[in-house]
Write a structure and sequence with these properties.
single chain; 261 residues; alpha/beta; 7-stranded mixed sheet; 7 helices
Length: 261
């Protein structure tokens, strides 16, 4: 059975934040329960795998798993916490003598290349707007609202009757944006806060109270929250829908196993 492994579940800044002495950041420094690297996941299928997003913690994430070669990557959007590890991946590809495969929406690719114009020497960047297949997973991508930060993309992956969605950066989604989320077996959703009090126009990611409303609408069988800021304390018992879990680095979810209704 294929598996989903969480490499990181932090927001753009990660946890702890260098300047911060809040209880969550202090706990993260001491015991590490709340220590969070930038959000990324690994999809393992037999002897091969691919990764979604490659933030600035990519090298540390690979080292933690003992991975020396990564061939394939999907990118949701070109913000630093999702592409900051690309130069290190490109250098790894150069040293091991492979050409990496990076799949991203067509409008994302030139943004990546403006940031890192040398990547093309070691990584092939390919659009996935029309859908692609990796390890038997049929993958569809669509644009989602990222609030004040513009846009991101979500991915729906289907294989042998099982469907799951990865959407780490979104907020205030409309009906068309949630169409491919509906009744998924698993939804991985970004929720930076439990309840964020900032004015909506200044924000870019769902909080958990808003996410509960989204889940009630799209009805996934299971959901895991990711992209969490230092507002979220994994030691707390939050009031969450019964089918929701909080993600953490190392968490593994079987893909293809449906929870009982």
């Amino acid at each position: 059975m294929d598996t989903l492994k969480f490499l990181g579940t932090g927001d753009a800044m990660g946890t702890p934040r260098v300047y911060c002495g809040c209880p969550v950041c202090e706990e993260a420094r001491i015991s590490g329960t709340n220590a969070r690297l930038r959000s990324s996941v690994l999809v393992e299928s037999g002897d091969d795998f691919f990764v979604i997003d490659c933030g600035p913690d990519w090298r540390r994430q690979m080292e933690s798993l003992g991975i020396r070669v990564m061939r394939r990557l999907l990118v949701t959007h070109p913000h630093f916490d999702h592409i900051g590890g690309l130069p290190e991946w490109a250098d790894a590809c150069r040293w091991v003598g492979i050409k990496g495969e990076l799949y991203a929406p067509a409008e994302v690719i030139p943004v990546i290349l403006r940031q890192y114009p040398w990547l093309g020497s070691h990584i092939e960047l390919m659009p996935l707007d029309e859908g692609i297949e990796l390890d038997g997973w049929q993958i569809a991508a669509w644009r989602v609202n990222h609030g004040k930060n513009g846009y991101s993309y979500a991915f729906r992956l289907e294989k042998e009757g099982y469907a799951w969605v990865y959407c780490p950066d979104s907020i205030s989604l409309g009906d068309e944006e949630t169409r491919l989320m509906r009744e998924a077996d698993l939804l991985v959703l970004g929720t930076s806060f439990y309840h964020e009090e900032a004015e909506l126009s200044t924000r870019s990611v769902y909080d958990m109270t808003e996410a509960a409303e989204l889940l009630a609408d799209v009805k996934p069988r299971r959901a895991v929250y990711t992209h969490m800021s230092h507002d979220v304390d994994l030691r707390k018992a939050y009031d969450l829908p019964e089918n929701v879990e909080l993600g953490y680095a190392g968490k593994t979810v079987p893909l293809g196993h449906r929870i009982e209704e």
